[in-house]
Amino acid sequence: MSAALRWDIFCQVIDNHGDIGVCWRLAAELGASGHAVRLWVDDASALAWMAPDGAPGVQVLPWPDQAPAEGPGDVVVEAFGCEIAPDFIAAIARQESASSQKSLWINLEYLSAEGYVERCHRLPSPLMDGPGTGLTRWFFYPGFTPRTGGLLRERNLGARQAGFDRAAWRARHGVAPGALAVSLFCYEPPALAQLLTQLALCADAHLLVTPGRATQAVLNEIDQQPAWEKRRQLSISYLKPCSQPEFDEMLWACDLNLVRGEDSLVRALWAGQPFVWHIYPQHDDAHHAKLQAFLDWLQAPDSLRRFHALWNGLETADALPQLEAALLDEWRDCVLAARTRLLAQPDLLTLLLGFVAEKS
After folding, report:
1. Strand ranges (DSSP E) for the chain?
2. 185-193 average pLDDT score
3. Backbone phi, psi, residue 10, to 5°
4. Positive or negative CA dihedral for 144, 150, 153, 159?
5. Within a 13 Å sphere around the CA of 296, how many CA atoms are in the beta-carbon half?
6. pLDDT band at 238; cut points 50, 70, 90
7. pLDDT at position 226 over 90
8. For position 47, what pLDDT does the model report?
9. Which of 14, 112, 183, 329 lies 20 to 30 Å from 119 when distance is taken between CA atoms?
10. Out of 96, 248, 255, 262, which one is annotated catalytic?
């Protein structure tokens, strides 16, 4: 698209790392492409450390009850099914009936490898009642296959990775040469105690724990096993909150990344290192099918499937596979093959801009 557009992106924070992380990456990349973005968010506190310098072209605003005086943007993105205020929807409807300049309303959905994503991607959803009666909202599904909306991937990602000094990063963070560096960004995985025990028995393991729930989960386990630290059997670094580029660098520097949610899953794929995904648990266990669909797409070997099943609590009666060099090499080959498939496909922003051009 040659013309710069005005975008309104709506984000309601449930898990302030995942949803705001995805929305910020999208907003920043749109701004870098010359578009003007208003990011409407009900809790922007995480951006203080996630994106401390902001981004050109992006304005962060509190969640609105109504549209601003200048009206809705050319494109309105409702992220993850959040509900836009009725008065804002009414403003979209008024704009559509009063002028030729209409807003394109898109529901940017959750990421999944399940089959319904390809079937539902780009489908219209006409509104039959309420302030948006007569409007059409379009579903846009991120995904892993050519028949989906793709994944977020910055234009300069490859150059950043190529220029990254992995050895220097590890030295700055106290990771000894040749050590097994494991990053931990998780909820409360059922097999965490197993992992800590296994790493404690590994002479050269170094665990890098992200702040928040991951740190608290580790501290809770250590309370039950104080010998891990008293005998210096387990080398642990408790990290501070960091920006999105710094988080990417941690994934590039580690030999195994334990990630959670949607944004960090995608970043782990781009990192090209072995990873295990702690999927967001749902009360009806719907995440089980979602995890299996992802592992199928990934073409994960049996050992990686077993680790995921135990890490996510789908199975409980087995021991975690031993994190030996040959195992991690097998996992790395799997991830690199998946990344190669993804790099052959257009990224999410390219596909989203093409969709907007088609429907505008």
Report:
1. 6-11, 36-41, 58-62, 75-79, 104-108, 124-126, 136-140, 180-184, 205-209, 235-238, 256-260, 275-278
2. 95
3. -110, 130
4. positive
5. 11
6. very high
7. no
8. 96
9. 14
10. 262
Residue 19 falls in the annotated catalytic set: yes
Three-state secondary structure call for residue 39: strand
The two three-digit tokens of residue 157, written as one number: 């990602």
Q: What single-letter amino acid sits at 151?
A: L
Roughly what angle, to the nearest 10 degrees, separates helices 286-298 and 325-343? Answer: 90
Q: Residue 49 and residue 113: Cα distance in Å, rounded?
A: 30
What pTM was estimated for this model as a whole? 0.95
Given the residues 19, 78, 154, 249, select the one marked as catalytic: 19
Residues near 21 by beta carbon (within 8 Å), at least 6 away in sequence: 46, 50, 244, 261, 262, 263, 264
Q: Which residues pair with 77 in a beta bridge?
A: 9, 106
DSSP class of 345 = S
How far does CA 316 lie from the centroid of its chain?
Answer: 27
Tens digits of per-residue pLDDT, 307-333? 999 999 998 878 999 999 999 999 999
As beta bridge partners, residue 259 has 277
Asked about 262 being catalytic, the answer comes back as yes
Sheet with 75-79: list strands edge to edge: 58-62, 36-41, 6-11, 75-79, 104-108, 136-140, 124-126
Report CA Rg, the chain.
22
Look at 16-20, 65-69, 78-82, 253-257 and tell me which has the smallest mean pLDDT: 16-20
CA 332 vs. chain centroid, Å, equals: 20
- What is the average per-residue pLDDT within 2-28? 90
DSSP three-state, residue 160: helix
Distance CA 139, CA 116 (A): 12
Residues 6+ apart with CB under 8 A from 291: 277, 279, 308, 312, 314
Nearest CA to 34 out of 199, 155, 190, 188 is that of 155
